[in-house]
Specification:
Layout: E1 2-5, H1 7-14, H2 21-27, H3 38-54, E2 58-65, E3 67-69, E4 72-74, E5 79-81, H4 83-88, E6 92-101, H5 104-116, H6 118-148, E7 153-154, H7 170-176, H8 179-183, E8 186-187, E9 193-194, E10 198-206
Antiparallel strand pairs: 1-2, 2-6, 3-4, 4-5, 6-10, 7-10, 8-9
Length: about 230
């Protein structure tokens, strides 16, 4: 199992956090064509600075062999039936189970503004979601490069709750990755993660290169979602 405490390393290697304002606005529900006020952009700018101070991104991952029998997908710690995940893992012989978090200080920041300034809290929620996604993308790219040197190709990460991948599988991933011990992430009885800006995912490993764009919004049947890409 590998683990990474990444904020210092990220900033050292990249100079600054690679924010994508368009993603923040998407999480806020802004259509691409809608003009954004200076006040909103100012609050976004303030929020980004505060999140960079509060966030302590960490991630952990572990490799497992994959067995597919019919529509049943099985690893040493996860067993599920999911047509969407099965399609994503086509030609894969192994999987990486992946977990990441922005840390508990981000939750405290969100809770503070929920009491003091709700408009800022909403923007911080969207910015933190975009931050977590960007961090996972960055870590995903590092894994892609690492495994390519070994002759393996990564499929896009796929999280419980996407498409027909049961959210109940969250428990198996949290347990297998020892997220509480490794990066301080726990799971509530209602399958919510704490800290809230945390995620788990399955990443396929295949010997066959394949262009695969199935991820997130693209497998969701809710076409009218305001957060859809």
């Amino acid at each position: 199992m590998k683990q990474m405490d990444a904020m210092e390393e990220w900033l050292e290697g990249n100079g600054e956090f690679p924010w994508q304002d368009r993603e923040i606005l998407r999480y806020l529900g802004y259509p691409q064509e809608q003009k954004v006020t200076e006040q909103v952009m100012s609050l976004i700018g303030e929020g980004k600075q505060e999140l960079e101070q509060a966030a302590r991104p960490r991630s952990v991952w572990k490799e497992y062999p994959l067995r597919v029998e019919g529509h049943l997908l099985t690893t040493a710690c996860l067993k599920t039936v999911s047509k969407n995940l099965e399609k994503n893992l086509k030609d894969c012989e192994k999987v990486l189970l992946f977990g990441a978090t922005l840390g508990s200080q981000v939750d405290r920041l969100l809770q503070r503004y929920a009491r003091l300034q709700m408009s800022k809290a909403v923007i911080l929620q969207a910015s933190a979601a975009a931050m977590l996604e960007t961090y996972c993308d960055w870590q995903n790219e590092r894994l892609r490069e690492e495994y390519k040197e070994k002759g393996w190709y990564l499929r896009p990460r796929f999280s419980p709750g996407y498409g027909d991948f049961p959210l109940e599988c969250q428990s198996s991933l949290v347990s297998a990755l020892e997220l509480s011990k490794r990066i301080g992430v726990t799971l509530t009885d209602s399958l919510l993660m704490a800290p809230s800006k945390s995620v788990t995912a399955v990443i396929g490993l295949s010997k066959k290169p394949r262009v695969c764009t199935v991820q997130g919004c693209e497998v969701c049947g809710k076409k009218d979602c305001p957060y859809r890409r």
